[in-house]
Amino acid sequence: MNRRYEGFMETILNYIVRKISSRNPVHSKKLKSNLANADDAYFSRADLFLKKYTDVLQCQNKTIDYAIDCYLQMLADVNYESVQFIQTGTYSSKSFAEVNKRVYENPEVMDYYMHGLLLSQFLWTHHYKILLFFERVIGEYSDSISNYLEVGGGHGLYISEAMKIVSDKARYSLVDISQRSVELSKMMIGDGKVSFFLTDVFDHHPDTEYDFITMGEVLEHVEDPVRLLKKIRSLLREDGRVFITAPTNAPAIDHIYLFRNADEIRSVVSSAGFRIMDELCVYSEDVTEEIAEKYKVSMMFAGILAK
């Protein structure tokens, strides 16, 4: 354990890792390895983010221990889905209707799933690296953004970061199909400038086009990602930009469309009429590309798209 980590012994992050370690020693090795390679900026940001999150939990009469329970339940789901994936080579969920009923419209499942995913933002290295990439690319286009849309806002982190970087005069909208996601995003964002739409993006018909659209980890949740991207394209200003992320070989309770490699994601993007202006690929494990390809290690793809 490096000294940077030791210097944060009293933080919420350290408490989370210690509690997870006591209940899942195998997984704790991965978490501690991630922290051993983290820099000071990571620890500072994680601390601020988790302090804000604990305030949200308190408003819901919940504690950080509740969030840890949610994370471990989400991890158990991932492990189960991974076994099925290894055996069959496919994701267990086949249709959006199935996932919508079993996950998105199920408050009990969505509660632990969203809180578990929120903790993963700073516990999983590849999630943090993608966030840094997002901040860099949106910074490059910030002067031209006056109308921002986020599709599938999750826990609201990305739109919160966008609001720190883009002009105060910009308008912000968030579309999500899950009521629990919208509720959590509202609490995490804590800003009246965001317009929330509890709806399917295909039913979202604004009276104006967007300069910048963010859609993180949504393509794998639909049966036809090309159709989804074409819808996004119809909402985008001619010279606007879209930021997307999508994982490969990432079984989960609500993942439907299997991307086996980055080229399959690039092909879907191209088929929808987009060009990739910049991209980043990050594996979920610290292994070589050869090992990752051989053993189908999950990879996160992030890209900035233009018409």
Structure summarized in a few sentences:
This protein is α/β, with parallel strands linked by helices.
Task: Describe this protein with a few key phrases.
307 residues, alpha/beta, Rossmann fold, seven-stranded mixed beta sheet, 13 helices, 7 strands, 53% helix, globular, disordered N terminus
Overview of this protein structure:
The protein is built from 13 helices and seven strands. The chain is an alpha/beta fold and 307 residues long. The chain has a seven-stranded mixed sheet, with helices on both faces. Strand 2, helix 10 and strand 3 form a beta-alpha-beta unit. Helix 7 packs across helix 10. The longest helix has 25 residues. The termini are far apart.
CATH class label of the largest domain? Alpha Beta
Q: How many discrete structural domains? A: 2
Radius of gyration: 19 Å
Note poorly predicted spans. Answer: 1-9
The outline comes out as globular
Fraction of residues in β-strands = 15-25%
Distance between the termini: 46 Å
- Give the strand line-up of the largest sheet: 3-2-1-4-5-7-6
User: Structural class, please?
Assistant: alpha/beta
